[in-house]
Write a structure and sequence with these properties.
17 helices; single chain; 475 residues
Length: 475
C-alpha cells in the first residue's frame, strides 16, 4: 500500500469527502452494531430484561469505543499532518506510539472491568431482574475490546495515508459475521445473551486479523518495524488531539448510565428499556454525523500540514453542507418510520408505541447537530485541543445533563423530561457551533489574505520568506 498524497491535494473535495465518509461511517456503525444486533436478537428471543441487560452494558462498550476513537483520531491526525509535511520519520514515531498506547490502556481496563463487573453493572443501573443477563454478557464481550481497538486504530492510520478500503472491509466483515453467528447461537442453539456475546468477540477477532494482514502494506512502505515505543511529545499529542473524540464517544455512555438510573428510580424498568431501544436508533443517526465529520479530519489535517488554507476552508464548508443534507434525510426517515424501526427490537405493541413517541421527541431538531459535530472535528484536525474539548462536552455534559435532572427531579416530567432534554440541548449546541464556525472561517480568510499579500511582496522584493510562518499560530 503506497501513500496517496495527490488525492489530498488535488482531488475534488466533495468526491474525496464522500470516499472517506463511507468507511468512516461504517467503522463507527460497526462498533455500535455489535450491541445493536445483539439487542435485536436477544430482545426478540428472550424479551425486555435481556434488552435492559445490554443497555446497562452499553456504557462500558461506549468507553471502549471512546478509547479506540481517541487513539485512532489522535494517531491519524498526526499521521495526516506529518504526511502533508513529508515527515516520514515522524509518521513512524506516531504509529509506534499509537499502537503501544492501545496495549497500555486496554489490557488493564479489561482486567479491571472483568474483576469488578457486578459492582460496575449495579452502579450503571442494573436491577435484580436485569443483572444476571448483564453479568453473563459482559463476562464474555469485554475480551473483544482489545481487538476492536486495534482494528480501529490501524484502520484510521491507513485511511489517513489514503487507503480507505481496509477500514470498510474489516468492519463490514465483522458486522456480517456477527449477524450470522448471532442467528446461529441465539436463534438456533438458544444460547441467549451468552451466544450474543460470543458472536461479538469472534467477529471482532476476525476483523482484527484482516486489518492486521492489510497493515503489512504500511509497514513495508514506511520501512516500519513494529515494537513498543513511546515518545513523550508524540504520546501527549495523540492523547491531547484525540481526547475530544474520547469525550464525544464516552459521554454517551456516561449520560446513558445517569439516565438509566434516573429512569429506573422515577419510571421503572420500562423507562430503561425504552431508552435502550431509542438510543440504539438515534445512535445510528449520530454515527452518520460522526463518520462524516471524522472523514473530514485527515483531509483537513493534511492541508493544514501543507499550508493550503484555501483548500482547508473549502473542506470544512463542503463537509457542513454534506452533513446537513444527510442529517435532514435521516431525520425525515426517523419521523416517518419510527414504529417500523422500533419493531425490529421489540414485539410488544405498547412498547413500540411508547418508544416511537419518545424517539420523535428525541430527534425533533436533529439536523442542526450536523454543524456541531463538524466544528468539533475541525478543531481537532488543526490541533486546537482546548476548543475541541469544550465543544465535545458542551452538548451532553454542560447542557443536556442539567436540563434532564431539572425536568425530571424538579419539574416532575418523568420520562418525558428525559426525552425533552435531547432537542433542547441539540438546539443550544447547534446554535453555539454556528457562531464558532463563522469565527473560524473569518480567521482562515485573514490567514489567506495575509499569505497572499506576503507572496505579492515577495514577487517585488529579494527579501527571504518562509512559507510556513504565516498564520501558523492563529488558526
Amino acid at each position: 500500500m503506497g501513500i496517496n498524497e495527490k488525492m489530498f491535494e488535488k482531488e475534488n473535495v466533495g468526491k474525496l469527502l464522500f470516499k472517506f465518509s463511507i468507511p468512516a461511517v461504517i467503522a463507527l456503525l460497526v462498533n455500535e452494531l455489535y450491541n445493536m444486533v445483539d439487542t435485536m436478537f436477544v430482545g426478540r428471543v428472550i424479551g425486555g430484561n435481556a434488552i435492559g441487560a445490554l443497555v446497562v452494558v452499553f456504557p462500558i462498550q461506549r468507553i471502549v469505543a471512546a478509547i479506540s476513537m481517541m487513539l485512532a483520531i489522535g494517531s491519524s491526525t498526526f499521521v495526516a499532518r506529518r504526511n502533508g509535511e513529508r515527515d516520514y520519520e515522524g509518521i513512524r514515531d506516531v504509529i509506534k506510539s499509537g499502537i503501544t498506547l492501545v496495549f497500555i490502556i486496554m489490557i488493564p481496563l479489561i482486567i479491571l472491568v472483568y474483576i469488578f463487573r457486578d459492582n460496575i453493572l449495579t452502579m450503571l443501573g442494573a436491577s435484580e431482574n436485569i443483572l444476571p443477563y448483564a453479568h453473563e454478557y459482559l463476562s464474555i464481550v469485554i475480551f473483544g475490546s482489545l481487538f476492536i481497538c486495534m482494528t480501529t486504530v490501524m484502520g484510521y492510520i491507513m485511511m489517513s495515508l489514503g487507503n480507505r478500503r481496509v477500514t470498510l472491509a474489516s468492519t463490514s466483515l465483522g458486522a456480517i459475521l456477527n449477524i450470522i453467528i448471532d442467528y446461529i447461537l441465539v436463534f438456533k442453539l438458544s444460547y441467549g445473551v451468552k451466544g450474543a456475546a460470543i458472536a461479538t468477540v469472534v467477529s471482532q477477532f476476525i476483523g482484527f486479523i484482516y486489518a492486521s494482514y492489510k497493515f503489512r502494506g504500511v509497514k513495508k512502505t514506511l520501512d516500519l518495524s513494529l515494537g513498543f515505543k513511546l515518545k513523550k511529545e508524540v504520546l501527549m499529542g495523540i492523547i491531547t488531539v484525540g481526547f475530544s473524540a474520547f469525550i464525544v464517544e464516552a459521554e454517551d455512555g456516561i449520560l446513558l448510565a445517569i439516565l438509566n438510573n434516573l429512569l429506573l428510580n422515577h419510571v421503572g424498568d420500562t423507562g430503561v428499556i425504552i431508552l435502550g431501544v431509542i438510543s440504539k436508533l438515534s445512535m445510528f443517526m449520530f454515527i452518520t454525523m460522526l463518520g462524516i465529520s471524522s472523514a473530514m479530519q485527515p483531509i483537513a489535517a493534511y492541508n493544514l500540514g501543507a499550508k493550503n488554507y484555501k483548500r482547508l476552508k473549502k473542506v470544512v464548508k463542503e463537509t457542513i453542507i454534506f452533513a446537513f443534507i444527510t442529517s435532514a434525510t435521516l431525520w425525515l426517515c426517523g419521523m416517518f418510520f419510527a414504529e417500523e424501526a422500533i419493531s425490529l427490537f421489540v414485539k410488544e405493541p405498547e412498547l413500540i408505541s411508547a418508544s416511537a413517541q419518545a424517539f420523535r421527541v428525541m430527534i425533533a431538531v436533529f439536523p442542526i447537530l450536523s454543524i456541531y459535530y463538524v466544528s468539533i472535528y475541525y478543531y481537532q484536525s488543526i490541533g486546537k485541543a482546548r476548543s475541541s474539548f469544550v465543544l465535545s462536552i458542551f452538548r451532553q455534559i454542560i447542557v443536556m445533563l442539567p436540563i434532564s435532572l431539572i425536568l425530571v427531579k424538579v419539574l416532575h416530567k418523568g420520562a418525558l423530561g428525559v426525552w425533552m432534554s435531547y432537542p433542547i440541548a441539540d438546539f443550544i449546541s447547534g446554535t453555539f457551533s454556528i457562531f464558532l464556525i463563522r469565527k473560524a472561517f473569518k480567521k482562515l480568510d485573514n490567514i489567506v489574505e495575509e499569505k497572499e499579500l506576503r507572496d505579492l511582496e515577495k514577487s517585488y522584493s529579494m527579501e527571504s520568506y518562509k512559507p510556513g510562518e504565516v498564520g501558523k499560530d492563529t488558526i
